[in-house]
């Protein structure tokens, strides 16, 4: 901790207080709900694209690799 100096300790204290306030606020819950919705919507979109590719045949040609 001696290498951090007083400026580093003040910066660490500000970051810890900010993270504590963020965790205690409703903002974090709202962000987690939004991220969950985006992941669900992304999964549905990717699944639909996969089903369309499976039923239409897609590009199932042999590869040179």
Characterise this structure.
- Helix content is 77%, strand content 0%.
- The chain has 65 residues and is mostly helical.
- The relative contact order is 0.06.
- The model has no long low-confidence stretch (mean pLDDT 83).
Brief description of this entry?
The protein is mainly α. The chain has helices at 5-24, 27-56.
Q: How are the elements arranged and paired?
A:
Elements: H1 5-24, H2 27-56
Largest sheet: none
Helical residue percent band: over 70%
Task: Supply the helix-strand structural class.
Answer: mainly alpha
- Rg: 24 Å
The stretches of 5 or more residues where confidence is low (pLDDT under 50) are: none
Mean pLDDT across the residues is: 83
- The ordered string of helix (H) and strand (E) elements is HH
Percent of residues in beta strands?
under 5%
Distance between the termini: 54 Å
Supply database-style keywords.
single chain, mainly alpha, elongated
